[in-house]
Amino acid sequence: MVARSLLYEGKAKIVYTTTEPEILLAHFKDDATAFNAQKRGSIVGKGEINCTISTVLFQYLEKQGIPTHWLESISANQMRVRRLQILPLEVVVRNIAAGSLCQQTGLPLGTVLKQPLVEFYYKNDSLGDPLLTSDRLFLLELATPEQVNQLQQMARQINRYLSEFFQRCDLTLVDFKLEFGYDAQGQLRLGDEISPDTCRLWDVAETDPNRRVMDKDRFRRDLGNVETAYQEVLRRVLAQGNEGGGN
Ligand code: ADP
Ligand code: MG
What we know:
The structure is a single chain. Helices cover about 30% and strands about 30% of the residues. By secondary structure, the protein is of the alpha+beta class. Helix 1 (about 45-65) packs parallel to helix 6 (about 225-240).
């Protein structure tokens, strides 16, 4: 399976077409960005770490019956995926208040939400990925009410599976971002990646609000030891993945 040509280069991945029209090659980069790419840097080894973590989690979710784009790992930082028509939506699931939810609502950091909150953001870098209301989502025709329902259901289900998985890694899944799209057969699938770039993960054993952070917030907030945290998440995810990921 040979990469044919560059399809697009994003902030975290380069996507290539292949000789098979329905299959793409995703190459995970070490580049790190935050605050809509206003902060740029690099996390050594991140490409391999995020590709490997995503691989374990996509395989685990597939086992639980969640359709994903993942097909095969071809190297530590490259995977073969089904080509999806990606919906221009970032589906965010929150279990604990952090980040923009705290900034925009005043909820204290660490507030455990009574039930998971599912939010839709407009995937549009030039607009700064704004939070959508359902009326705005329908106004822009980004999805139909049926699609919104299906996305919410899938996101909640994925949250249950991922929360359980990370709990077994002694990590609390605070919140995470998902991207979905349709494959050539019209099936809705989970795409993109699941990694410390796209999930907030807190070490269960730590109560200190900075020391517990095991995700991209270490980079965003200059907390140091970014690589160490990513490596530790990888180590725990692999250990759990090898145990069968809890079927
Ligand atoms: P971004 O800078 O938008 O975060 P990334 O570098 O994370 O982009 O990823 C590159 C692009 O690949 C994104 O636009 C993402 O939506 C897209 N993408 C992810 N999975 C697939 C897929 N299976 N098919 C088509 N595009 C995909
Ligand atoms: Mg991305």
